[in-house]
Design brief:
The structure holds two protein chains of two kinds. Chain A is built from 16 helices and 19 strands. By secondary structure, chain A is α/β, with parallel strands linked by helices. Chain A folds into three domains: 150 residues, Aconitase, domain 3; 108 residues, Aconitase, Domain 2 (3-Layer(aba) Sandwich), CATH 3.40.1060.10; 139 residues, Aconitase, domain 3, CATH 3.30.499.10. The radius of gyration of chain A is 21 Å and the shape is globular. A seven-stranded mixed beta sheet of chain B has the order 4-3-2-1-5-6-7. Classes of the chains: A alpha/beta, B alpha/beta. Bound molecules: iron/sulfur cluster (SF4). The site of iron/sulfur cluster has 13 residues of chain A, from helix 4 and helix 12.
Chain lengths: 428, 174
């Protein structure tokens, strides 16, 4: 019997299997941000265990609330900053160089095929786009990760999506993952890895694959995972070129990180997605999904383009393509947060920032921003936001507000009309 | 070990997420105790009063997929500082479930029929549940009736509860 990609990663990292269903794995990366890590640091200090297993494998960023908005968030930033200095964690990204964790860490080349990664953040599943096993964990797992470089997981189960056909114009990875979550429901993939495979995924950029994998958790999945290929190698090349003689050699090395043909899956889904329409959420759960056409005309008050789901350069290009030469509706306000400084710089050079500003968008610094209603872009009660983020829970962007999750294209088009609308209306 | 014996809070809904258990705006707190007043503040459940209903409770009984959403361990902590150390549900989100055991608390899964029976037979009256970890049994009592329910407790989960969590266990072992 063959093995799945996740089983192979487990085999390569297993330290111990203390119980039949418990695998303690060695970690290649422990990622940290300023919301969940400070409390881990203070707890380790209180236990007299203020140590780190390997400062070169720990990467940290301040991203959720930046610049600090009050004394408490300033304190959280300080705890993380002091700790990074104390332990000589070189890859620590403070304001000015910081960006949304799941965008900046891959961009810096920290994620590689076959890696094991944890972070105190549920959307850590994003990094599976590189063929890594990357899982969100709580503070205690994070503490043990920091201290010992290990984490315990249950035996991995995998479901596989074989996605065929091709995405129609105006339909993107975000629409596809919303559709998949609708099919799986919010707990359909609990304790499972979700493999995204097939011609549709092969064609996708790393950015689009990250969008897909990012939302695996919204179906309860531990990780969303794609097989590494030439697209992966190209994305990483700047960081791996000293390791390999050529791109082909890198690809050959990485190609061990795929599932065997006779691997066993919990379930295999096959879809031809050629008829898929743009999708949007309507309620307070990410599996409450309808087509944009069914939701056309729904009034919105705010537009948010950004986050670890859709704040990357590809997303800004798509949104700006629709907004070029247009103005947002007088009835809405709109915010865009490029996810990292590098993305911001590219957007500036390509003239995208100017397009956003001329259309009436507020452009913020790279940050999680409105995504979690903790720093900026908070909704008032009764307001609706057209958002490219990943979570529409009750109160997520502010008490009494509602969040409609959608692609950057749909969000940009909806900004122009002030109501949810299909972006095809504004094509060309 | 923590206290696993006491009064039950029934939450008759599926998919209760961690934003409902403890809203994101309280994640700036750096002590567990500070979370105490805000447990279940944003829970959307008809007739639920987060100030009154959680008083003196030790056990939560609920439906499917409890604790979905964010990875915040603030969710089990907010329960813990309110004296709630056990959640019994049809199913849990992975991260929440692991966080509970990592803190030496218990997330117990029961089949749907058993959860339905608990709601049907006990949710209207003051109910007590005592968890026996050794025997893996729940002793359920109200003024009208009582019963014993078996549950499954994995070896790793049991050891975490007995050793008071994962940090000490891992630091000694690895
Ligand atoms: S952008 Fe939103 S979902 Fe992503 S890490 Fe930040 S807060 Fe979490």
């Amino acid at each position: 019997m063959g093995k799945t990609l996740v089983e192979k990663i487990f085999d390569a990292h297993r330290v111990e299997q203390p119980y039949p269903d418990t695998h303690v794995l060695k970690l290649d990366r422990v990622f940290c941000h300023e919301i969940t890590t400070p409390i881990a640091i203070t707890d380790l200090m209180a236990r007299g265990k203020d140590r780190v297993f390997d400062p070169s494998k720990i990467k940290a960023v301040i991203d959720h609330v930046t610049p600090a908005k009050d004394s408490k968030t300033a304190e959280q930033g300080k705890i993380l900053r002091d700790w990074a200095r104390r332990h000589e964690i070189k890859d620590f990204f403070d304001i000015g160089r910081n960006g949304v964790c799941h965008a900046i860490f891959p961009e810096k080349g920290f994620v590689r095929p076959g890696y094991t990664i944890i972070m105190g953040d549920s959307h850590t599943c994003t990094h599976g786009a590189f063929g890594a096993f990357a899982a969100g964990v709580g503070t205690t797992d994070l503490e043990v990760g920091i201290l010992k470089g290990v984490c315990a997981f249950k035996s991995p189960k995998t479901i596989k999506f074989n996605l065929k056909g091709s995405l129609q114009p105006g339909v993107y990875a975000k629409d596809l993952i919303l559709f998949i979550i609708k099919e799986l429901t919010v707990n359909g993939a609990t304790n499972m890895a979700i493999e995204f495979t097939g011609p549709v995924v092969d064609e996708m950029s790393m950015e689009s694959r990250m969008t897909l994998c990012n939302m695996a958790i919204e179906a309860g999945g531990t990780v969303g995972i794609c097989y590494p290929d030439m697209t992966t190698v190209e994305y990483l090349w700047e960081y791996i070129k000293d390791e390999f003689g050529s791109k082909e050699e890198a690809l050959k090395n990485y190609s061990k990180w795929v599932s065997d043909a006779d691997a066993s899956y919990e379930k295999i889904y096959e879809y031809d997605i050629s008829k898929l329409e743009p999708m949007v959420t309507f309620g307070y759960k990410p599996d409450q999904v309808k087509s944009v056409n069914e939701m056309t005309g729904t009034k919105i008050d705010q537009i948010y383009i950004g986050s670890c789901t859709n704040g990357r350069i590809e997303d800004l290009r798509i949104a700006a393509g629709i907004l070029k030469g247009k103005m947002i509706s007088d009835n809405v306000r709109a915010i865009v947060s490029p996810a990292t400084p590098a993305i911001y710089t590219m957007a500036l050079k390509e003239g995208l920032i100017e397009i956003f500003q001329s259309a009436g968008f507020c452009v913020t610094n790279p940050t999680c921003g409105a995504c979690l209603g903790m720093s900026n872009g908070v909704l008032a009660s009764g307001e609706a936001c057209a958002s490219t983020t990943n979570r529409n829970f009750n109160g997520r962007m502010g008490k009494g507000g509602v969040v409609h999750l959608m692609s950057p294209a749909t969000a940009a088009a909806s900004a122009i009309t002030g109501t949810i609308v299909n972006s095809q209306l504004y094509k060309g | 070990m923590k206290n696993f014996n006491g009064k039950v809070l029934f939450l008759d809904r599926s998919d209760i997420n961690t934003d409902e258990i403890i809203p994101a705006k309280y994640l700036t707190e750096i002590t567990k105790e500070a979370l105490k007043p805000y447990l279940l503040e944003d829970l959307s459940l008809k007739g639920f009063d987060n100030k009154e209903d959680i008083k003196d409770k030790v056990v939560v009984v609920t439906r499917e997929n409890f604790g979905c959403g964010s990875s915040r361990e603030h969710a089990p902590w907010a329960l813990e500082v309110n004296g709630i150390n056990v959640v019994i549900a049809e199913s849990f989100a992975r991260i929440f479930r692991q966080n509970m055991f990592n803190c030496g608390m218990m997330a117990i899964e029961l089949p749907k029929e058993k959860i339905d029976n608990l709601f049907n037979n006990y949710s209207g009256s003051i109910t007590n549940i005592e968890v026996d970890i050794e025997k893996a049994k729940l002793f359920v009592t109200s003024s009208e009736q009582s019963e014993v329910i078996d549950f499954e407790l994995g070896g790793f989960d049991k050891v975490l509860v007995q050793e008071g969590g994962w940090v000490n266990y891992a630091d000694n072992r690895y």
